[in-house]
Input
Amino acid sequence: MAKSWATFGVDLHLDPTATSTGVRRGLTDALRDAVRTGRLAPGTRLPSSRSLAADLGIARNTVADAYADLVAEGWLTARQGSGTRVGMGAPPTPLRQWGSAVVPPTHPTPPRRLSSRPTYDLVPGTPDLAAFPRTEWLKAARRALTNAPYQALGYGDPRGRVELRTALAAYLSRARGVRADPEHILISAGISGGLRLLGAVLRARGAHTIAVESYGLAVHWQILDEAGLRTRPLPFDELGANPGQLTDEPGVLLTPAHQFPMGVPLHHDRRSAVVDWARRTGGLVLEDDYDGEFRYDRQPIGALQGLDPNHVVYLGTASKSLAPGLRLAWMVLPPSLMEEVAKAKGGTDTCGVLDQLTLAEFITSGAYDRHVRAARLRYRRRRDTLVEALAQRAPDVHVTGIAAGFHAVLSLPPGTEQSVVQAAAWQGLALHALSFYRHEHALVDPLDALVVGYGTPPDHAWAGAVEALCRVLP
Amino acid sequence: MAKSWATFGVDLHLDPTATSTGVRRGLTDALRDAVRTGRLAPGTRLPSSRSLAADLGIARNTVADAYADLVAEGWLTARQGSGTRVGMGAPPTPLRQWGSAVVPPTHPTPPRRLSSRPTYDLVPGTPDLAAFPRTEWLKAARRALTNAPYQALGYGDPRGRVELRTALAAYLSRARGVRADPEHILISAGISGGLRLLGAVLRARGAHTIAVESYGLAVHWQILDEAGLRTRPLPFDELGANPGQLTDEPGVLLTPAHQFPMGVPLHHDRRSAVVDWARRTGGLVLEDDYDGEFRYDRQPIGALQGLDPNHVVYLGTASKSLAPGLRLAWMVLPPSLMEEVAKAKGGTDTCGVLDQLTLAEFITSGAYDRHVRAARLRYRRRRDTLVEALAQRAPDVHVTGIAAGFHAVLSLPPGTEQSVVQAAAWQGLALHALSFYRHEHALVDPLDALVVGYGTPPDHAWAGAVEALCRVLP
Output
């Protein structure tokens, strides 16, 4: 029988057969809905995690995690002395001051300003958006739109604009060692959009499962799951995912250059082993190269795709190098997959052509390289200040995964992960625990750790974010 | 047993149980693939439609239709005296002169310029792209990007940017009588993208069929079909679709303001009947208002959604008013559907935020209204010259559906439809027959007619397109 909680008029149904991850997600969703729809009014004080956990008969940590997630998302606020409350700006539809736009007088329910945004944000996955190269981007947009033939504005090729595919083929070959031909590149709405298409194609080919890493993005696993593919994690150790257990899976999703979130590169022997497996069995390797532009201390690690373009799908994105809001990502596909993937995308392009043309111009004019170089320098400096601050202020915390990208893994003393995340939430610091990225069937011992996204804050908030982080570390 | 044709190295497998529409699509797809992949080399002469039809044991018209489609798409060329040939630019990846972009020297197979584009294009569905307001759009983009908070560039609300939803709520209320609240608007990648989401939601609710109009867009039917919903056409007459036969369908897709492609508005009594049906049965009305901005002689016809926002989903788009390449459309959803549709869209926005912010600015600054007014005047003038030219040059052709939008239906003498389309293809004029838009189970007598998109050509090609059209009419 599902357990139910009806305080505050919120009916909370939890499936007792769900895993702890499932219970946490169910609780988070139900509370978010209650705030969004107004069933939980702004300012309402929530029960303590201890008492709600007791009421529901679930682990206290699960409730604490759900609260922390919702604080990080801005639905709840947590302040010492006043407990956890529904944000005053709820329902949170963050309408900002918007240029010359006027909120129309006929607008029936003017959204209010969200007041519960955390003060500091170290959740990984988002680059420094304040450093988006607005001026250069607008220049590229002007050149692109001025020079585009008018036909470019019509219904387009499902693969995306040829100008962008051509620019990417050259760039990826040069920067990432990808063997790319514009004919076999397809532009998608984020890597998520690409995975949705690949999931549909694998499912249509009869697949039911797909191998993944023990740590990764739940949103990717969910996309594959919704496509009808059960995700099965590979064992994981300090050399990355272990492909030794791959047998007859139709595919495997990996982050070979910089494992997300653990930060290790896939060991050379395992790179070869994965490609051997793919050749032997006809399995497909999905290579998520989300932050391949950003490397610091180590030698460049080229794309796995370069080893075998016929068995590896390369997935890259502008979400980390520029901004997720562009919703522009790309896949370099084995020629044999192109038709099926383009068909799954539908008869026409689904990404706006103006941004595609602008990005093509941005790349070919050299602005992309300049921007990436500047961003690399910024993130490297931040990494150095982070490592230095931690060495001084939190000597018990071990930092790893820092040779590339813009996130780091901070190992914590056993048993402290949740209390640190909770303490951070109280301080208005959004943080993610490593357990957030652990597959429910992960083949690796749990580790108390934080995943710190040091690219996320704007420059002016960086020092404050580091200070807030140091305060909550043991 | 499937029939097969192996001339030119092309294996053509046709399912003998398929409908004529299915055979035509299968043939078109197979030939397009053969050209695209190079199995049919540029310049190759295809067999006559008569001899290929005899080889395959299918109707000659089906082959002629497939050839005409491929000529219109630019894969084949048809010239009197030299038969139907594969375009010389094939595989057609239209790379145009591209600003300051340089085709990189490492580019493995530089795409060649497509030489087989038809000289004139009167295929409906695309506005005059040469009239896209580039300067005004760039100004709006500059204001939008300059004023946007940096957080706007991150992973966003699955409904789309609040600035655009707010601007649309006011605009749709004013211009189309839609009862819209920004909270219940969702931005999608074209109306196709919206239908994909709605199809998934209806299917998840257990639906297996959906009612549609006897004439419409095959691509929409296909999207619904792929979502698992069989499309069942309603009877059709001069008052539009007849909703009298609606019973317990979970939904109906209509173009009430301007039936596509027939051009009639849905009769007042039927508008009421559809809404009554929806209220009585809980069925959902999907209102495709693709060209609601463009009306000429008749009184404005407001959106059906205004009659009952709880049972009608309003679908609008920038594809006709601005350009399909923007891939920006919107749905105004009954509040009860919002969560499910947002969930089907996935955890984040899938449309680029920069174009969303720009369109919001474009609307609120008044530029959208100015552009629509200018476009309306342009299309109205074209319509008048078209009607005048036809009255003089083709008195046997009857023109209908001209009170709105930018396409017209030209009724032809019985039995002449295919020969006119074929003759047009020979002249380098891309045209669609009405039969292209007829559902395979349509409940209306077939009619020989053309659907002429008079918005499509740029101004400089308009007179030539009309002349070419008049030459091929009986």
User: Anything to note?
Assistant: Chain B has 13 helices and 17 strands. The longest strand of chain B covers residues 312-317. The two ends of chain B are 40 Å apart (CA to CA). The CA atoms of residues 289 and 440 of chain B lie 23 Å apart.
